[in-house]
Design brief:
The chain is mainly beta. Helix content is 0%, strand content 53%. Strands 2, 4, 5, 6, 9, 10 and 11 form a 7-stranded mixed β-sheet that branches.
Length: 117
């Protein structure tokens, strides 16, 4: 059974930082492209950051320079470091694992991030 479990969300003031974790089981993430998405109320889910199997990264323009995605294949865990948080970063953040060659696509249950004073 594949599980992706996000943690590290919470309430933070504008300008603050959080580090999200996505602990996986049932897969070996070294074989997967990993990503973080977010969904704010009334808005579609959007890609925040992604990291390929080889470690190449890409980011949404809105988070470039503030967010960092990285992976620890030995621990089967992916992280999202978030700095200089803004109110518009408020959303539920989801972890995603994709192995396109096998049509595998897994999601976590999400973790709430609220940026507010």
């Amino acid at each position: 059974q594949v599980q992706l479990v996000e943690s590290g969300g919470g309430l933070v003031q504008p300008g603050g930082s959080l580090r999200l974790s996505c602990a996986t089981s049932g897969i070996t993430i070294s074989a997967y492209a990993m990503a973080w998405y977010r969904q704010a109320p009334g808005k579609p889910r959007e890609l925040v950051a992604a990291i390929t199997r080889s470690g190449n990264t890409n980011y949404a323009d809105s988070v470039k320079g503030r967010f960092t995605i990285d992976r620890d294949n030995a621990k089967n865990t992916v992280f999202l470091g978030m700095n200089s948080l803004k109110s518009e970063d408020t959303a539920v953040y989801y972890c995603n694992a994709v192995r396109a060659t096998l049509s595998r696509n897994y999601w976590g249950q999400g973790t709430q991030v609220t940026v507010s004073s």
